[in-house]
Amino acid sequence: QGAAIGGATGAGGEAPKLLMSQGRDGLLYPDAVLNDEQVAQHWFIKFARNKATLTDQIILKSEFHYYKALHSLGIETIAQDGLALEEATKPSLWMKRFDREISEHGVERFAVESIYSLAGVTVPGSYMNHLEVIQLLARLWIQAGQIDQVPALVSDYLRRDLLNKILGNSDNHGRNTSIIRGTNSFRLAPIYDLAPMVMDDEGVTRTTKWPKDLEVAGEVKWREVCNALKVIADPETLYEALREDAARLSALPDILTASGLPDTTMNHPSIALRNLEQRLKSWGLK
Known about the structure:
GO terms for molecular function: protein serine/threonine kinase activity. This protein has 286 residues and is of the alpha+beta class.
């Protein structure tokens, strides 16, 4: 840390991050230093935020376990191949970049755009409305001729917010969800920046919320949320899909315990893992 790296840009946020390229010689280089044909892999390396206190390190370690758990449930997230938590004096989380893919034809770069960018928001940390974000995404999908994919898009979006609520990821600003642009298509980027930020000593709160009548004192009225989306997708279909997702996600406590999630995270009062079945019932999802 403290490295001055030219070209290692584009990785914003509070936690120190590095974009690195692994050469075919096995060494690591600052991003954009090597020619494409010299690159074997592109890495996104993340360190503990703030002063790297014990809590900051637990948050980083928990993020690692969250990605592993999502993968085991078949939910698209950070690639498991190469995913590693290096627990040195200053722990680091190593992740393969999802905006790059290396094949025999060279390096393919994917156009990733955040929700902030899509909405024309230029001020970091700006508040957003989930309904407006979904409407924005649905319009894009329809314009691209993907109207038949809109219900699945909305269900995916709802599942992501349910995950945030279960896992205590309060850092849900418009940079932490993105789309990937194809030649003539759009898709949501894999889930990233998924960490128990409710544990952060600085008090990170949700900046993207449902309207006030749908999210009261931090509690989301999931059935009413589905009803509010009736102009975009069938509310009953959305609600049943969300209940199915909730049933699948109910395995998270067991998966994360077996994985080695820190007890501090598992038992945190603002994280729903400790009493997930009860919480899902109170949310009307069981």
